[in-house]
Amino acid sequence: MEVESDYILVDGHFCLQGDSGVIEIPLKTFRGMNIAATLLLTDSPAEIYKRLSSRDGTSLHLDAIQSLQIAERDRANYVANTLHIPFFEAQIYDVDQILSWLEAIIQ
Question: Count of alpha carbons within 13 Å of 34, Cβ hemisphere only?
């Protein structure tokens, strides 16, 4: 089944956790994707820890998760400002707010 659309939703990160700390994804990566907007989904570090532990059997420490989430927010803002595109941040379970924002972006 082939689906045609003018919109693609990419699930990714603005930063990654490396052995020596946070690694920022290069701006050229986002320029190359020609993205139209950024949506940052956040959650409490404790909930992220639980999901990672459940999925992977291990997780980063809570302080590392918190630092990574702060770095993600800062990098997402930087990317959006630099590329002059909308930035939106929402809690991961705030589905109504996320859907409203997505609808506004595609109109």
Answer: 3
What's the full length of the chain, in residues? 107
- Cα–Cα dist 77/71, whole Å: 10
Q: What is the pTM for the complete model shown?
A: 0.85
Q: How far is CA 105 from CA 1, 24, 50, 76, in A?
A: 26, 25, 32, 17
Cβ-based burial of 2 (10 A; exposed 0-12, middle 13-18, buried ≥19): exposed
Summarised one tens digit per residue, pLDDT across range 36-68 is 899 999 999 999 999 988 888 877 889 999 999
Q: Which two tokens stand for residue 7?
A: 């919109």
Which of these, 69, 74, 7, 79, lies nearest to 38 by C-alpha position? 79
